[in-house]
Amino acid sequence: QVQLIESGGGLVQAGGSLRLSCAVSGRTFSRYHMAWFRQVPGKEREFVAAKSSGGGVTTYADSVKGRFTISRDNGKNTVALQMNSLKPEDTAVYFCAAGSSWGRYDSWGQGTQVTVSS
Length: 118
Known about the structure:
Blueprint: E1 4-7, E2 10-13, E3 18-24, E4 33-39, E5 46-51, E6 58-60, E7 68-73, E8 78-83, E9 92-99, E10 107-108, E11 112-117
Parallel strand pairs: 2-11
Antiparallel strand pairs: 1-3, 3-8, 4-5, 4-9, 5-6, 7-8, 9-10, 9-11
């Protein structure tokens, strides 16, 4: 397993942008598929976006398509989530996740709060 530390959350007005970053420890980062999830209190964790280990496959939740972009830098062991045109319903704790199997993530960060005001 690897350790993941998110940063970049905060408070932003609707229509604004935020960039989340996730720093990943370990020498095998390039072998992991990476993803972002989010969770609102009282609700299940929700998939946001994922990018394959080599970067060739990317997928997004319908709710964020066209607004969010996931990227990774295998040289710097980081994955980012650029969030544009933010909406109040994007308010959540955002988690970075890593997994060796596509769609299955077994290492998680501690989460970073994103709050979008109307």
